[in-house]
Amino acid sequence: MSSLLTLPSTASRLKLVPKALVAIPLSLNLIKSLEQTRIRPSNSPLLFFPPSLGLNSLTTHFSTSRSTVTPDPFHDNLVVLGIETSCDDTAAAIVKGNGEILSQVVSSQADLLAQYGGVAPKMAEEAHSRVIDQVVQEALDKASLTEKDLSAVAVTIGPGLSLCLRVGVQKARRVAGNFNLPIISVHHMEAHAIVARLMEKELQFPFLALLISGGHNLLVLAHDLGQYTQLGTTIDDAIGEAFDKTAKWLGLDLRKSGGPAVEQLAREGDAESVKFSIPMKQHKDCNFSYAGLKTQVRLAIASRNIDAKVPISCASSQDRSSRADIAASFQRVAVLHLEERCERAIEWALKIEPSIKHLVVSGGVASNQYVRARLDHVVNKYSLRLVCPPPNLCTDNGVMIAWTGIENFRAGRYDPPPPAKDPEDFKYDVRPRWPLGEEYAEGRKLKVSESEALGILNVASHSRCGGSEMSNGKSSIIDGAQSAWDMFDEENSLMHITTSSADLDNILGGGIHCKEVTEIGGVPGIGKTQLG
Q1: Which H, E and C letters describe 421-479, residue by residue?
Q2: Is the distance from CB of 174 to CB of 410 less than 8 angstroms?
Q3: What is the pLDDT of residues 5-47, one digit of tens each?
Q4: Does one domain contain both 239 and 172?
Q5: Does a structural domain hold residue 89?
Q6: Helix axes 239-249, 258-266, angle to 10 degrees
Q7: What is the pLDDT of residues 343-400, one digit of tens each?
Q8: 151 CB-side CA count, 13 A
Q9: How far apart, in whole angstroms, are the C-alpha atoms of residue 379 and residue 308?
Q10: Which of 223, 248, 356, 399 has an alpha carbon 20 to 30 Å from 39's alpha carbon atom?
């Protein structure tokens, strides 16, 4: 791939080039006066690369600032193909520069999700490979276009599953290479935020965004296109993962995906019937944790003798009622955690950017109507507006990739056409882990002070912690730890403990035989500990 896409992982398109390197705006008169090489067909939007510049040199002229790019009417006629394969949906869409959605196609892997109880990366990759050509062709057919009518191709390069990302990147490069089209690399989570600007024309930078999905919980302050401050993220599991696992343990139909299934069942239940505790109540930051809540749900299900092998459709009336109560109680607490974090994030954001007027909520979980209703109450306290894309644009889709591609194209951030055929040893640039912006100092995940430290203990079966033990062999209460139970991840045998340094020293030295102790944040004795 071009120099833009082969930067080391520590760099990104979001903070790519010094501001001194700006795009050279080419006026129509200038274009006409030059001896040009035209790479677009005559019936498509204009995009010219004068021979004096050369295609390869163009990447060094891209700007990271929107303010250096003057909008022009030609951008309204851009026609961009967006390709998305970051996880378990194969999606493509064609969008015009004026915001018109010409087509949208999504191929779901719902049957695979139901079969494996979640996303199996290798199976997901094979499913993408089987349908990617068909999905892209269907998007073109629905728009009554061919590849020759396109202005550019936008594709997700991260974050996501590397095997799945490669399928989309390879397809995008084939189309762009064969038809001499520029290619635009898109950050998946940025696209979830930016698609809101397609639907809400009044949404201007800066704004606050909550991005919630199966793999991500992010609170970001969007200063401008490509300029973000990360206020909070998940320290373990995302809310979508918690919804999916709860749906699986309750025996729900995963072909609908876990979130909608839990939301539907929760409408039948009593949200106050099961007393789940809200995660991280004592943490005065904007980070998230859902591992402990998952464990609470799992134990509540076990205490009621609910058998996930019995599907909800076959459950007795009493059994269904119990499942509904758990679903409703889980959803209430999961969303309360979102509300608390969002309130603090809004306060932080207003200190940094007092002019913000909107909270954007996007990602798959943003389709949940209960989530939207509760967060609407939150923003009203601060006289902000809640902006949520329609449900079909909250889940992974090609429209958000195409539109984010259009916004980046306007800002001069795109690569020249790739070769028609990549070398066999070509290394595709995919970024499974790709942070969105810099972490806000007050929100760092492993912030350690004298009064507070974060310890992560690997909890072995039948081990003792501070003299307390549970009947199922999983330690839950540690002397001096305020929230050990709230943050215990039974599935992965991890416990996240917030306590004072002195108390943690007592824990590590009080009857626990440590096989391994590492450090976090340079504080000795705090880290990942295996109990023996």
Answers
A1: CCCCCCCCCCCCCCCCCEECHHHCCCCCCCCCEEEEEECCCCCCECCECCCCCCCCCCC
A2: no
A3: 333 332 333 433 333 333 323 333 333 332 333 233 333 333 3
A4: no
A5: yes
A6: 70
A7: 999 999 999 999 999 999 999 999 999 999 999 999 999 999 999 999 999 999 999 9
A8: 24
A9: 37
A10: 399
Is 505 among the domain residues?
Answer: no
Q: In which region does residue 416 sit, left (phi positive, over 0), alpha (psi from -120 to 50) or beta (all else)? A: beta
Look up the domain containing 90 and give its range: 73-204+396-411
CA distance 332 to 346: 21
Task: List the 385-387 sheet strands across, edge first.
Answer: 385-387, 358-362, 207-212, 217-224, 227-233, 438-439
362 neighbors 191 (Cβ within 8 angstroms):
no
Quote the CA–CA distance of 308 and 297 in Å, as a whole number.
13
**Rounded-to-integer distance, Cα 209 and Cα 192, Å:** 9
User: Which one, of 174, 229, 207, 184, lies nearest residue 47 by Cα?
Assistant: 184
Q: Check if the beta carbon of residue 80 is closer than 8 Å to that of residue 153.
A: yes
First to last CA, the chain: 49
Q: Do 216 and 280 lie in a common domain? A: yes
Do 196 and 244 sit in the same domain of this protein? no
Residues 167 and 252 in one domain: no
Strands 453-458 and 494-499: antiparallel
Residues 142 and 281 in one domain: no
Q: Which pair of tokens denotes residue 448?
A: 């350690």
Last residue of a domain, one of 356, 373, 388: 356
Judgement on whether residues 142 and 226 belong to the same structural domain of the protein: no
Apex 349 CA angle, 212 and 486, nearest 5: 50
Backbone Cα Rg of the chain: 25
Question: What is the number of residues in the chain?
Answer: 532
Q: Could you give the CA distance from residue 22 to residue 323 in angstroms, rounded to a whole number?
A: 58
Total domain count, the chain: 2
Q: For residue 516, give both structure tokens.
A: 């391994």
Give pTM, 2 decimals. Answer: 0.74
In the chain, the amino acid numbered 219 is: L
Residue 296 lies in a domain: yes
Asked if the structure places residue 216 within a domain, the reply is yes
313 lies in the same domain as 220: yes
Q: What is the CATH number of the domain that holds 212?
A: 3.30.420.40
How confident is the model over 134-150, as a mean pLDDT?
98
Is 321 in the same domain as 406?
no
C-alpha to C-alpha distances, 510 to 212, 331, 448, 455, 523, nearest whole angstrom? 39, 37, 22, 15, 19
Q: Is residue 27 within 8 Å of residue 46, measured between CB atoms? A: no
